[in-house]
Amino acid sequence: MKIMVIDATTKRPLVNTKLQLQIRGKESGFVTVTTDQSGAVQLDDKYRGHQVCALFNGTQGAWVAANEGTTLSLTAKTTAQGSKEKNKEEKNKETWK
Fold first, then answer.
1. Is residue 96, in this structure, part of any structural domain at all?
2. Average pLDDT in the 41-70 region?
């Protein structure tokens, strides 16, 4: 079955991205997948109807039922964005001498 993975903030598909899927149900566990050029992943039919969420760069997406055409959305925070936020926080800190 084919599942689409999109970025929740930009609503664009995550293309050629490696991520982990956490699966709840009879066949529980973790599966590492890579999205194709259209932002979709192929998942085995044995996971049909299970609960699935995407794990990417330390963020966890929402739990959704794994069916044909399901869309997983998650916030894709890149390392560049994370470092910018860290620098912004450091600038706002007061230094005591």
1. no
2. 90
